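User: I'm writing a tutorial on reading structure tokens. Could you give me a worked example: one chain, its sequence, then its tokens, then a sentence or two explaining what the tokens reveal?
Assistant: Sure. Here is the example chain.
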Amino acid sequence: MTHTLYEFDSRRHTRTVQDQHTISVLVDNKPGVLARVAGLFARRGYNIESLAVSITDDPNVSRMTIVVNGDETIVEQITKQLHKQIDVSKVQDYIGVPIVARELALIKVNAEVRDRGAIMQLVDVFRGRIIDMSDKTFVIELTGAGDKIDAFEKLVEPYGVRELVRTGRIAMSRGPRSL
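And here are its predicted structure tokens:
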């Protein structure tokens, strides 16, 4: 599936549009496979925008969800190269396939007493959770589409984002179809 990403180019102070493609890859769960797949992208000069990897229901298989920028020709080249890898069993390019996609973010925000109510309201509106509190900070857990997380981050910036970590996109096709 093609996603449109709006980025802010700080050098030009303008927004740019890029096509993002989501690819899922089933690989053998053994040492070195991740490095070989990432190396394939690097050798060909393709930047990985996000990469999420984890074991599947089969302990011998891992699933990679890779997000790359580029047109369909570039994505087609990438998927052909992935199919050639010995440790790769399946590759799914989600172009034209309806998917469910999510990211997870943990965001540590300054939370002074006077700001806590407003921050808690934002967390509630975005259906997030405060998973840790200190006398000066909140750690907020938020899941959803990347643009939802981007919007939340922008709204809490005035309070001071101390730390932020995101998983990158994970995805699967809608309906009964499986990888």
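What the tokens reveal: The two ends are 15 Å apart (CA to CA). The helical segments are 33-43, 72-84, 116-125, 146-156.
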